[in-house]
Amino acid sequence: MVVTESRRVASIAAREREGGAAITTDDPRPDPLLDASDATLAARARDGDIHAYEVIARRHGPLMRVYAARLLGADADSDDVVQDAFLTAWRRLADLENPAQIRNWLMRIVSNKSIDRLRARREHDDIDAWDPPARRSQTPDRVVEARLQMDAMWSALERLPLDQRRCWLLRETAGYSYTEIAEALGMSVSTVRGRIARARTFLITEMEAWR
User: Fold this and answer.
1) Which one of 3.55.40.10, 3.40.1190.20, 2.60.200.30, 1.10.10.10 gives the CATH number of domain 127-211?
2) What's the CATH number for 1-125?
């Protein structure tokens, strides 16, 4: 039963990713769930209603995909991250305390998945993929220095508290506004500003030796 449900959820996520046809049921009458609130859909999904979860996926999947793509900078990666986020969310629906906050909860999950993917890239990709191509006029010493500086920046980012790192990455690498970050992460604009300010102060201090 669990395996079957997981496969159905994976199928839902795949259809949402591909922009599949509108949700249909065997009942010819209009689907009342299409106009249901997030709280109603999440509560039903938490009780095992996969159709309600499909409506959630179609409603919030596009925002999750844009969020992941802007953070990761790769459409293929963002598709995988969003699909993984939907599977994880389905398995953890019992942990959702407030069904009305399903969107913010999903955004936090996809944020965690995106940051995990960024960390995996950092650990496994060739470092040249992370650095701008060296100009011909650059000496080997300058190339090495640039790579060491990139290492130092990533190391400093990883020492930031997770919420500060999320906010900083969305602001500095994805170009999100403070309001967009607040909406995506479910926090106030003032909180976002404060966390980004603290992250910048920390990074400036940590990178002082490279200035």
Assistant:
1) 1.10.10.10
2) 1.10.1740.10
Instruction: Give residue-wise pLDDT tens across range 32-72.
Output: 788 899 999 999 999 989 999 999 998 888 878 877 876 77
Six-digit token pair at 3?
């395996």
Contact 163, 185 (CB under 8 A): yes
Length of the chain: 211
| Model pLDDT, residue 94 | 92
Give the start-to-end residue ranges of the domains of the chain. Answer: 1-125, 127-211
